[in-house]
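User: Here's a structure from my thesis project, written as structure tokens. My advisor, Dr. K., wants to see whether a designed sequence matches the one we expressed. Can you design one independently, without my sequence as a hint?
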């Protein structure tokens, strides 16, 4: 059984500057990410833009790409085993996958853990009972194209491959904003091939 830590520890262990954008407690930064100011950080990947290409190999050894998932709604979650808020949201991600998989939702986890942490990653996936695909992206190929500013980072990609939603920070249980975005995306028909 994996140990759970108090919420105060979860928030205090959030790394990579998420505190600065207000995302450690599962709240999106204003506008879905930091604003672009002269001399400030680059704007985050814009909602409404095509999702960048990404491919990897799942923990089961199967190749998988976002292009393979075209026609499905994808909840892409970028995380790491050392990230306490990431651990906190894993049960909610699994619950969403279980609830909506038959309607066309795929949750895709992408772990950016170092190669030495592969066993820890496999143990976490097993320990949390995650049944959705997880890719170990040790070289962090996803970071630059998705403009990851910290962990966790989550994206909803619609059936046509368009980015519909971004969250920099933890997804809380029963998040109404995410629920509304998923419902709208799942209600849309798959695009013609």
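Assistant: Designed independently from the structure alone:
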């Amino acid at each position: 059984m994996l140990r759970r830590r108090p919420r105060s520890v979860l928030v205090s262990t959030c790394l990579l500057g998420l505190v600065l954008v207000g995302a450690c407690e599962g709240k999106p930064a204003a506008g879905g990410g930091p604003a672009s100011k002269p001399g400030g950080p680059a704007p985050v990947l814009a909602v409404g833009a095509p999702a960048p290409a990404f491919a990897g190999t799942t923990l089961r050894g199967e190749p998988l790409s976002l292009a393979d998932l075209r026609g499905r709604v994808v909840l892409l979650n970028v995380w790491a085993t050392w990230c306490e808020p990431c651990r906190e949201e894993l049960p909610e991600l699994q619950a969403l996958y279980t609830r909506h998989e038959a309607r066309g939702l795929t949750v895709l986890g992408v772990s950016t853990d170092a190669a030495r942490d592969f066993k820890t990653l496999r143990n976490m996936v097993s320990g949390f009972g995650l049944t959705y695909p997880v890719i170990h992206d040790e070289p962090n190929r996803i970071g630059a194209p998705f403009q990851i500013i910290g962990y966790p980072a989550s994206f909803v990609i619609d059936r046509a491959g368009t980015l519909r939603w971004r969250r920099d920070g933890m997804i809380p249980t029963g998040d109404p904003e995410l629920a509304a975005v998923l419902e709208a995306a799942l209600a849309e028909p798959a695009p013609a091939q």
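When you compare it with your expressed construct, this may help: The first helix runs from residue 7 to 12.
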